[in-house]
Amino acid sequence: MALGTGCTARPGKSRNNRTGSWRVFRPAFIHERCTSCGMCRIVCPEGCIGENEEGLPVPDYDYCKGCGLCAEECPSEAIEMKKEEK
Amino acid sequence: MNDKAACGLFDSGHRACGGCGAAMAARLMLDAAGKDTIIVSSTGCMEVFSTPYPETAWKVPWIHSLFENNSAVASGIVASLAKQGRKEKVVAIGGDGATFDIGILCLSGAFERGHDFTYICYDNEAYMNTGIQRSGATPYDASTTTSPAGSCSFGNKRPKKDLPLILAAHGAPYVATASIAYPPDFKKKVEKAINTPGPCYIQVHAPCCTGWGFEGEKTIAIGKLAIETGLWVNYEMENGVVTKVKKVVRKPVEDYLIEQKRFRHLFKPKKNETEIAKIQALADRNAEKFGIDITLKK
After folding, report:
1. Staple partner for B208: which of A2, B124, B279, B281, CB 3.0–4.6 Å?
2. B76 at the A interface (CB within 8 A)?
3. What is the pLDDT of residues B39-71, one digit of tens each?
4. Dist. CA B178–CA B190, nearest whole Å
5. Residues 36-55 (B) with a CB less than 8 A from some CB of A
């Protein structure tokens, strides 16, 4: 029996919603100070921090809401929050 | 733009507040659970921010029915998978409102029947999605919209319900509390719960910047303070016996309270020593009950 109720959505379709526009402060990643510990990638509530080929963190500014959690938790102070200029 | 994919099974673009503890809990939980997981979600913040139709942040099978019945839906899925001989793991998630108050009937039923599933409660200590109303998980003296602090009240009058103990009393093989402030510990507990046969329960402390009143960047710092003051205890309980507890060098509860707007009435216009002493007594009782104190040699 086919049920005609309920709604479905494609997995991960929330990527259509570019939450980067919410941002007031922008995290600047200073790779010279980075030790690649991965803390920023673990704590990011958006899951929008990736890695480049050297294993250094690279944020996806399309989705970063600028909460500053990564900058606060970074043990080597390699992330600085700067006022967003649009 | 990134060489390595940034997100795991819980995708970016969800509508949680910046610095959301529950969003972090969802990511960590899926990291630990893996792709062969079916998520059953109750109504709540996590359901609303992750899945506003027609969008969804989840990349695993996910179902939402009502506020009260996610344990019942999970029970049905577990029974159906068993009948088909399939091996997927079922994880039910709910906020503290859905778990402590609205869904406890179905939760109790599912635990009593002994279905093999894991229930994860992300505990942000009030009904945040609907506008910060108090729940059974709201701590003593926290100001919420339905327990406002004012001239006749110091906020929520009742202490937090001890739900892990209630579920352990159902004979659950594994019950644990965790905090998003300690991600590896939380992930380890999720893995253990999923691989333990029978109904398992994890309650994860997920600070809410909007509801508690602190800046989004402080989410983890607040979570750590809750543990360091003894107001939240990370422990594991196997077959009703506490087997592992996170020990700390305790700080006074003031350090935790003063950081949050929901406790601001305890410090303004002047410090309310009597009420703070009552909260300190709750922390002391936790410390005694679980033995969390580390005594430093002098």
Report:
1. B124
2. no
3. 999 999 999 999 988 889 999 999 998 999 999
4. 9
5. 50-51, 53-55
pLDDT greater than 60 at residue A85: yes
pLDDT-derived band of residue B6, with 50, 70 and 90 as boundaries?
low
Report pLDDT for B4.
Answer: 47
**Spatial distance between the Cα atoms of B236 and B176, rounded to a whole number of angstroms:** 4
Instruction: Count CB neighbours of B214 within 10 A.
Output: 19
Judge contact between B23 and B95, C-beta under 8 A: no
Q: What whole-number distance in Å separates Cα of residue B20 and Cα of residue B16?
A: 6
Q: Touching check for B216 and chain A: CB below 8 Å?
A: yes
Alpha carbon distance B44, B100 (integer Å): 13
Which one, of B122, B175, B172, lies nearest residue B16 by Cα? B122
pLDDT in tens, A20-41: 899 999 999 999 999 999 899 9
Q: What is the rounded distance in angstroms from the CA atom of residue B296 to the CA atom of residue B267?
A: 30
The answer to whether the pTM exceeds 0.90 is yes
Q: Per the structure block, which two tokens stand in for B76?
A: 């049905």
Distance from C-alpha of B145 to C-alpha of B141, rounded to nearest angstrom:
13
> What is the rounded CA–CA span in Å between residue B203 and residue B93?
10
Chain A interface, best mutation among B7, B20, B24, B225, by max A CB count within 10 A: B7
d(CA A63, CA A20): 4
Which B residues in the span 249-278 are in contact with A, Cβ-Cβ below 8 Å? none
Report the distance separating Cα B187 and Cα B86, nearest Å: 24
All domains of chain B in start order, with CATH: 21-290 (3.40.50.970)
Is the model more confident about A9 or about B72? B72
Classified as helix, coil or strand, B143 is coil
